[in-house]
Amino acid sequence: MKIPFVDLKAQYHSLKTEMDAAIFNVIENTAFIKGKQVSTFEEAFAHKYGVKNCIGLANGTDALYISMKMLGIGPGDEVITTAWSWISTSETVTQTGARPVFVDVDAFYTIDASKIEDKITSRTKAIIPVHLYGQAAQMDVITDIAKRHNLILIEDCAQSHFTEFKGQKAGTFGSAGTFSFYPGKNLGAYGDAGAILTNDDEMAAKFRMYASHGALKKHHHEIEGINSRLDGLQAAVLNVKLPHIDEWNSRRIENAAMYTEHLKDVPEVKIPMVRKDTKHTFHIYCIQAENREALREHLLENGIETQIHYPTMLPFMPAYKYMKHKPEDFPNAYAAQDKILSLPMYAELTPENIEYVSDTVKKFYKR
Ligand SMILES: *Cc1c(COP(=O)(O)O)cnc(C)c1O
């Protein structure tokens, strides 16, 4: 049996007629930039989140950068974020002129809320939790810390479309929720795309203006901005997919439960935990495995693709060597770094696929 890490083709085939028509329609109408598909998606996504504003953008990295820049984060500021994320979260802090300050993760692979206050200084301006793998960060504690210390809260929701913490959607706790629609994300376009959600109308106008060369009205440049647009083709793709996201997320959750059922008694494997009272949308099903490299090889020999998210935690990347961090600064992230392994995860996986992957893992340890 061949099992890819993600199967974007299976999803395309399930939507082919509608998708082909939607894409063709954009071309027919030459609605490549701005246009109806973009505003339709922005309205639908905001509505589904129960949030007042959605600003469609070129990608999720820009969503982070634009949010921070327009919320006033810049040179001299410090921004607290997690040691365990994709580099977009921290590189955009540096892009604004501020400095990222990393915090270790908890047992759920999200920022350890109990360690945030130790890192707050007079220069701290914001906290950016990442709902990694689809798991909600500890938002009650984090929101409280942000309020007490008067810090800006931006949620990186690139991996957590429609994740919930105690019944509230991740991305609605702070000043802005930033999203990526990179093809492999739970809600993915057919190229790069991203968005910001916010309930603050004034900030929404600023985000939109900055993303559009500093102009809300054509040729009316209030400030210098950047060019970060959600294009019509990507919006059309997202409009076809959005009505299916709840069903896809439900299937991911079921698939994760099946993996967990199969693997929970394998002593060499640590299954992922789900934070209490949350909806974990399982962008990634990440185990910790003894002898990971050999297991990965064994799975590949048996047709199963896996990935590692991420082989090196942010503070230990060459890009952050200047911070001179030591493994003991981030004991949880460091201890997991050489054990984590992401198993195939997508809505279209069958129970047979999951059983096969799990059995192949079990066979490896029985040898
Ligand atoms: C994918 C991702 C991003 C960046 O999104 P792009 O659309 O690829 O720019 C940011 N943060 C996290 C945690 C991500 O996984």
Short synopsis of the structure:
The chain is of the alpha/beta class. It has helices at 8-28, 36-49, 60-70, 88-95, 139-148, 201-211, 232-241, 245-263, 292-301, 331-337, 351-366, and strands at residues 53-57, 78-82, 99-103, 124-128, 152-156, 164-165, 168-169, 176-180, 194-198, 215-217, 220-221, 269-270, 278-279, 285-289, 340-343. The chain has 11 helices and 15 strands.
Description:
The structure is a single chain. The protein has helices spanning about 10-30, 35-50, 60-70, 90-95, 140-150, 200-210, 230-240, 245-265, 290-300, 330-335, 350-365, and strands spanning about 55, 80, 100-105, 125-130, 150-155, 165, 170, 175-180, 195-200, 215, 220, 270, 280, 285-290, 340-345. Strand 4 (about 125-130), helix 5 (about 140-150) and strand 5 form a beta-alpha-beta unit. It is globular. Helices cover about 35% and strands about 15% of the residues. With about 375 residues, the chain is of the alpha/beta class. The protein has 2 domains: about 10-245, Aspartate Aminotransferase, domain 2 (3-Layer(aba) Sandwich), CATH 3.40.640; about 245-365, Aspartate Aminotransferase, domain 1. The chain has a 7-stranded mixed sheet, sandwiched between helices. The protein has a 3-stranded antiparallel sheet with strand order 7-6-13, with no helix packed on it. Helix 1 (about 10-30) crosses helix 7 (about 230-240), helix 3 packs parallel to helix 4 (about 90-95) and helix 8 runs parallel beside helix 11. The two termini are about 20 Å apart.
